[in-house]
Amino acid sequence: MVNYINGAIREAIGKGRALMTKIPGSRTLGTHFASLANFANDEIGRIIDDLDNLLADSDYCDPKNLKSKFTRFKQLSFFLSKIENIVIAALNRKSDDDDFVNKLVQEICNEVNYPLPPPVASCLSQNYYHIYPDYGLICIPLLESEFVLHIPDLYHELGHPLIERDNPKVEPFQNNLGYFNLAVRKHFEEEIKRREMNKLDSGGYDPIYIYKDSWVEKWSVEFFCDLFATYTLGPAYLWSNLHMCTKMAWDVFKTPAYEMSTHPAADARMRCCILALEQLGFEEDAVDIKAKWDEFIEIIGQKRTEEYSIAYPESLLKSAAEFCFTGLKQIGCQLATSAPSDKVNRLLNDSWQQFWTNPIEFYEWERTAVAAFKQIL
């Protein structure tokens, strides 16, 4: 197997060099994808250097270290595969749709006074909207450049780099997330003590520990990204969230029992965003959205459980909204108003108003509105 691993490493080095040749040149890339191309070139170069070192390192030639050599090779192959299937794929399938979406992301970042460089956007996604903060890449579904009702989800994805990137400009926002997580820990530790004193964990297993860990490890981030979108865009983000939920799994009160979940329940996310919307002064919109959300829940026939209420207490939702609001003000983000002058904000909120005014004819209105918007972007 010694010859095998050395041959496999050499092949991986060759694959890395071949991937470099797949990075388009400047004429093809245009302005928006240049940063992603530079990242890909540098990252592949680092992986190749690490593979060269793995091949040449005399310590790894010792048979007793062969397992470690395999382990490191597996890790580097994984990194190279991610670059190939995400970054290089985005660069190679670049289209006019990508150019529009990148202009859109740039304009959104300008409007909200986004403190970081705007990420590159690609209509590459096979899994709804998502972002790779380390790559500076947002992926959205193929046809999203032609429709507007889900575009508000871009704002949620833009929230992730504010949390995950190491940059002093966003430290105040990250600090507020940290303060909020301290409040989460305190809340659940007090609840755990109360349940222990009252012997409420009758079965010997108590999922409240799962709730606490889920909040601190995953949920708080998702709530802050939702809140970033709500505070900077306004009602359109909540309408878009409802629109998404009608198409996704319908367990809107999903509460983990035995292992952490990556995303909080859809109902809790909506409740938290409604609180933020009210704080911004959109009380009437908040009432309308809550009414439609409650109607949707009634239609699908779901009800809140006692455990759901324990996992997602109103006090923590309010606290999340308050800490996020403070963090956004501290990093200078522009908050949404009831009379937006910015063109993306206005388009997205006007689109949802138009949808509810005349849902049946909305598709025709949308086609005209998107075409006109592309002319002025």
Would you tell me the structural class of the helices and strands?
A: mainly alpha
Strand proportion, as a percent range, falls in under 5%
- Form type: globular
For the record, give the distance between the C-alpha atoms at the N and C termini, rounded to a whole number: 58 Å
Descriptive report:
The chain is mainly α and 377 residues long. The chain folds into two domains: 2-94; 147-376, no CATH class. The protein has helices at residues 2-21, 26-29, 34-56, 66-92, 96-111, 153-164, 171-197, 208-233, 235-245, 266-280, 283-300, 306-311, 314-330, 343-357, 362-376, and strands at 120-122, 130-132, 137-139. Strands 1-3-2 form a three-stranded mixed sheet, with helices on both faces. Strand 2 and strand 3 (137-139) form a beta hairpin. The model has no long low-confidence stretch (mean pLDDT 93).
Primary descriptors:
2 domains, 3 strands, three-stranded mixed sheet, single chain
Can you lay out the helices and strands and say which pair or pack?
Layout: H1 2-21, H2 26-29, H3 34-56, H4 66-92, H5 96-111, E1 120-122, E2 130-132, E3 137-139, H6 153-164, H7 171-197, H8 208-233, H9 235-245, H10 266-280, H11 283-300, H12 306-311, H13 314-330, H14 343-357, H15 362-376
Parallel strand pairs: 1-3
Antiparallel strand pairs: 2-3
Helix pairs in contact: 1-3, 1-4, 3-4, 6-8, 7-8, 7-13, 8-9, 8-10, 8-13, 9-10, 9-11, 9-14, 10-11, 10-13, 14-15
